[in-house]
Write a structure and sequence with these properties.
The protein is of the alpha+beta class and about 400 residues long. The protein folds into 4 domains: about 5-20 and about 170-315, MoaB/Mog-like domain (Molybdenum Cofactor Biosythetic Enzyme, Chain A, 3-Layer(aba) Sandwich); about 20-45 and about 135-170, Molybdopterin biosynthesis moea protein, domain 2 (Alpha-Beta Complex), CATH 3.90.105; about 50-130, Molybdopterin biosynthesis moeA protein, domain 3 (Beta Complex); about 325-395, Beta-clip (Beta Barrel), CATH 2.40.340.10. The chain is built from 6 helices and 26 strands. A hairpin with a 6-residue loop joins strand 23 and strand 24 (about 355). Helix 1 crosses helix 6 (about 300-315) and helix 4 (about 225-235) packs across helix 5 (about 255-260). The longest helix is centred in the last third of the chain and has 19 residues, at about 300-315. It starts with a helix and ends with a strand. The structure holds adenosine monophosphate (AMP) and magnesium ion. Magnesium ion binds near residues 180, 181 and 245. Pfam families: MoCF_biosynth, MoeA_C, MoeA_N. Belongs to the MoeA family. It is an enzyme of class 2 (transferase). It comes from Echinicola arenosa.
Length: about 400
């Protein structure tokens, strides 16, 4: 049995770049950038009017304003730049318009009164210029989004602004999720007394969907021959297989033997951790297939997936998945033999987290109360109240 750090190192040693592809901007959210993004113009691209009002010439902001300014015309947003002909006049300007030539300051409508073609100013000095200067956010050629970044909705706006109607993103691996277990039935079937509906495949499938991956779902019965025949096909067809169940000590836990028979290279089986100890990980050299075989208990499956697979995936897509840390809200006895992922709740009062009472890794419904898992490393002494540990969010 190996420890959690060694297991993680072995998983990450299998990181794999699957190439890049171009997608329309409307399909890019949640994907990982495979190109650096630069501004193609100054931002803003022109001196942009920030308030609806009048634009005047006021070389020194401290100079007093004139009592009134006859209006020469209106500079609308989206109209070419106008020019102020006489410096004692003004132009009406709208937010988003280019600042007219010959003006430098905007007096908002709130501070003027307009009567018969003249703007009467109600203040003695301008408050500020209300001009968003050309290039003041980012000059042309600025690196605004870096290769490897996961594209969020705010980034989509940036990509649109720089004219990226198509975006180069990292290709995601093709992936199949395979449940094993003769007690499992489909969710629209009626369970007999000894049966349960499968949940892990849906849990994993949804988690992958959030990363932009549409995985195939499969089920294979607990029969060594059948497992071998079907996995042989799947190993060749997909980049990654995620399996749940069938890797523990039970009489029908055939997967480790089947993998061996199929020539899959085992990197480890069993990690000094709870839950999820029987986790099996390896790869098939010839078909370059990565295999994550999680023990079937729903919390074990999910924790392993969030901790190992997610870090592997992000590394493979040019990013890295890092965990925030949270303070433990109460002292707990140390655990020298195993690292532990404990289900915790957020305590809104002081931001610390508290362990949740639940019935172990088979208690799927406890996930509804869980904010995430705190990773407590192997240790002889106690885990101190207020001490910081990695927090694996499930939200
Ligand atoms: P195993 O790892 O195959 O020994 O399974 C451990 C426990 O997890 C058993 O109680 C299984 O019924 C349960 N289990 C396995 N796979 C799933 C699944 N896909 N959905 C829900 N529970 C599962
Ligand atoms: Mg099983």
């Amino acid at each position: 049995m190996i420890n959690i750090q060694k297991a993680l190192d072995l998983v990450l040693s299998q990181k794999q770049f699957y190439g890049a592809e171009e997608v329309p901007l409307t399909e890019a959210v949640g994907r990982f950038l495979a190109e650096d993004i630069f501004t193609d113009r100054d931002a803003p691209p022109f001196d942009r009017v920030m308030m609806d009002g009048i634009a005047i010439q006021l070389k020194d902001l401290n100079d007093p304003l004139r009592p009134n300014y006859p209006i020469q015309g209106i500079q609308a947003a989206g109209a070419p730049q106008m020019t102020l002909k006489a410096p004692d006049h003004c132009l009406e300007v709208m937010t988003g318009a280019i600042l007219p030539q010959g003006t430098d300051t905007v007096i908002p409508y709130e501070e003027v009164e307009i009567k018969e073609g003249t703007a009467y100013v109600k203040i003695e000095k301008a408050i500020k210029r209300f001009v968003h200067g050309q290039g003041s956010d980012s000059p042309k050629g600025t690196l605004v989004l870096q290769k490897g970044k996961k594209i969020h909705p705010g980034d989509i706006g940036i990509l649109a602004t720089v004219g990226k109607s198509r975006v180069e993103v990292a290709k995601v691996p093709t992936l199949a999720i395979i449940s094993t277990g003769d007690e499992l039935i489909e969710i629209d079937e009626k369970p007999l007394a000894h049966q349960i509906r499968k949940s892990n495949v849906y849990n994993l499938w949804a988690s992958l969907l959030q990363e932009g991956i549409h995985a195939e779902r499969h089920h294979i019965i607990d029969d060594q021959k059948v497992l071998q025949t079907q996995l042989k096909i799947l190993v060749q067809k997909f980049d990654v297989l995620l399996l749940s169940g069938g890797v523990s000590m039970g009489k029908f836990d055939y997967l480790p033997t089947v993998f061996e028979n199929l020539g899959v290279q085992k990197l480890f089986h069993r990690v000094a951790q709870r839950p999820g100890k029987p986790f099996w990980f390896g790869y098939h050299e010839e078909f370059n297939t990565k295999i994550f075989a999680y023990p079937g208990n729903p919390v074990s499956t999910y924790v392993n997936h969030l901790f190992y697979f997610k870090q592997w995936l992000y590394a493979s897509l040019g990013n890295s998945w890092t965990f925030e840390t949270k303070e433990l809200g109460e002292e707990m006895p140390g655990c020298p033999n195993l690292a532990r992922f404990i289900s915790v709740n957020l305590n809104s009062e002081n931001g610390r987290v508290l362990p949740l009472n639940h019935n172990g890794s088979g208690d799927l419904f406890s996930l509804a109360q869980t904010a995430g898992f705190l990773l407590l490393p192997q240790r002889e002494g106690v885990y101190r109240k207020g001490e910081r540990f990695s927090f694996i969010t499930i939200r």
